[in-house]
Every structure is written in C-alpha cells, then in structure tokens.
Amino acid sequence: MSRTRTIIKWSLIVIGGLITTLVLFGFWFISLLPEPMLSMEDMEKTTPADLPYLAKNITPHRGKMLAVVTSCSEMGTSGKSTGYELTELARAYYVFEANGFEVDVASPLGGEPPIVIDSDDMKVFDYAFLNDSIAQRKVTKSIGIENVDPNDYQGIYFVGGKGAMFDFPQNQYIQSIVREYYESGKVVGAVCHGPAALVNVRLSNGQYLLANRTISSFTNDEELLLIPDAKDIFPFLLQEKLTENGARFNEGPVYLNQVSQDGNLVTGQNPWSTWELAESMIEQMGYVPKMRGITAEENTVNILGSYESDGYEGAKNTIKDYCLNNNRSIDRELLAVHSIVAGMQWDIMKSADLIRLLVYSNSFL
Fold it and tell me: pTM of whole model > 0.85?
C-alpha cells in the first residue's frame, strides 16, 4: 500500500471514530435530561387560574403599571425578524398583577406588536399569558406611546427584544416619559435590550440620565455570541452605548441573572433577570413582594451563579442543598444549555464541569 493510501485510510478511521464518539456522546448527553413532570400538552393549556401565585391571596388594587414593547419586526436591513420577548413581558406582567397593579401595554406604533417566542424558554407563566384573554387584548391592541397619559401609572417597564434597539432610543415620547418618571421619583425598569430606551434620555438639567448611574443590560459578550455580526446589524452595541453616555455598567456572567438598582432606576441583564427585576420594582414602590414559588429555572440560575463564584464544589453543594434539604426543583435542560454555551466559548473545562453537575443532579431523581 502506498504512503498516500495509508494516510487516507488512517484519516478515514480517525474521522469515523470521532463521528461515532460524537454520536454516542450525543445520545448519552440527551439521556441525562429526564422527562418533564408536566407534559408539553398540559403546559400549553395553562391559564392564570391554574397558577396559585395569581389565583390565591389576591392583593388589593394599588394602581397601574405601563409595560412598553417594541414595534420593530426586523433587525435593521438584515432581513432577520425580531420583536419583543414574550417571556420578558409575561413574567413581569404577572409579578405586577399579583402585587396589585393592573398592567397596560404600549408600543411606539400602537396596535399589535411583533413577538418573539423561544419554545425552549417557555414555561407555565408564559403559556398562561398566551391563554389570558385580557392580557392578549392589551398586547394586540397596545397603546401608541404618544397617546399614553403618564399620570395614569405608578411606574414604567421596558420589555426587551432586539427590536427595541431600533425604535426605543430615538423616540421622543419615550424619552419624555422616562425623564418625567425618573425626576418625579416613579420607578423606571428595563430588562435585556429594554435599556435601549434610556440611552438618549436627558434630564431637565441637560445631563444624560445615565451619567454615573449603575446599569445592567444585555452585554457585548451575550450579543456577539449569538450574532457575530451584531456591530453591522445594530445601530450600536447596547453595553457600549450605555457606557458611552455615562453609565457605570454592571456586568454579570453570560446568561445569568444580574439586576442593578440605582435609586428608582432598575435594570436587568437578560431574560433570566426578569423575575428579580419586577420584584425589585415592587419594592422600590414601597411594597413587600407577594410570596412566589421559585421556579426550577431560577434555582438552576442560582446553581450556575454558585459555580461562577465558588467553583464546581460550590455548585455541587448548592445542588445537594436544594435537592436534599429544600426539595427545590432543577431545570436540567437549562444546565445542559449552559454547558453547550461554555463549549461555544471554547471554555472546555467549564463545559465539562457543568456536564458533571448535570450528572450529579440526576443522582437525586
């Protein structure tokens, strides 16, 4: 056999071995994910009446909150679709409602805004929102932002979604309401790309609202990981623009909960910050947030946070504490997703550690 044929033969053997190994690893990895306790069919049928957080111990009416979503359906001229993130609206909407606040929905253009639904992130609160006739009517007939009476609301919340990068920053009505609320002491909240509403706001003294304010939002690392050409698609990278206009940017680990509060300005880094951000807004208004069952997703984010701060052993101890002492559920799919994200970032050690944590968590099933 010639030298060339030998090289080809062994190359094919090595490639075949790698493919076989990857396939076997894939099947093993999928086997680590247990069947969900609630079937997808049952989850999709969830209504607000099925959620004890909303249906029991109802809080008396305290006023109204305004949630603002994007009207933009395309990322610039890229041809990529966008809209507001359903989970970032639904979860905050129900925190406000559970704490006694009726929620209205507004958008730059009014009417029915474009929506982004990531099926992998959908949980019971999100499906309940889709099955909530009142909530759906408010969304599909959103108020045009120029028609909003600021006196009607105790606070404002800007929902994320990449469309917000295009129609929030230059909107004069948004800037006016934010300035009025901030200067009067009303709470202003924004999550993920929602802080795009804040970038160009100037106070009555002419200074940027952001000047010397501690802010969180979707980070450059998070943006560029999913959209490598984001600098060409968006008018700016949000973290850079916030910093450019004077913000002290408070960056947390990629795709983990990070909320910053600077007086009556409350901002969150990404979708996983929505629960805490909405409850922080309730606290800023002077109320103790209604007790809520912590979700499996939140528990998993806490485990991942323990890994970031205390390493593998710290995260392992958190899992043990949750499963043995507190009977808390874990979203193992989310743990698996973060192991993949770490691999995408070429952090092989972290990816391997998170897979080990996934295996360890399964020992408590």
Answer: yes
